Amino acid sequence: xARATMADLITQVRGMSNAGTADYTVNGSSYWTDDQVQEVxxxxxxxxxxxxxxxxxxxxxxxxxxxxxYHSGYSHLEQTDAGTAVFVIENTQGDDQGTxxxxxxxxxxxxxxxxxxxxxxxxxxxxxxxLNRAAADMWRMKAAHYANAYDFExxxxxxxxxxxxxxxxxxxxxxxxxxxxxxVTMYRSDT
Length: 191
Fold this sequence. Notes:
The protein has 191 residues and is α+β, with helices and mostly antiparallel strands. It folds into two domains: 90 residues, no CATH class; 85 residues, no CATH class. The protein is built from four helices and eleven strands, in the order H-E-E-H-E-E-E-E-E-E-E-H-E-E-H. The strands form four sheets. A four-stranded antiparallel beta sheet has the order 4-5-8-7, with no helix packed on it. The protein has a three-stranded antiparallel beta sheet with strand order 3-9-6, with no helix packed on it. A two-stranded antiparallel ribbon has the order 1-2. The protein starts with 6 loop residues before the first helix and ends in a 13-residue tail after the last helix.
């Protein structure tokens, strides 16, 4: 079942992949329910654990600084519902800072504290998603569905349904190009 914390991300991927809630039906199942969109997105989920966020100082005078804004270095983060460990901000001692102490721009990965933190270190635990890869997958799945469409001509009408397949693959390629790079750490076993 699609999590409420995913609602905004699911809406974004729907827009990127032009996916309604009943685009087509396969074997009695309508595509694209929120569950189906989330299932595709889960393929490209990265769990982050206690990543130190970068404090961004705000100049308030000649030499005065205030510290409210922190950048995580991640975007497209799953939101908190204030009752789970999906999105947690902790201090250096590991104390949960609670949602009353801050607000978040989950799309940009920016946390803004209610009061000046003095530049103290804060850490994020959460989940991030590659929306571009998810949209590319959905476009490919749509192309597979369109594969049984065919072109036809009659009485000065020319229907080129094959263009739907071509356009779906073009959109998949576009989103694939915009997706995050995969980084892998390799170790030699012979050393």
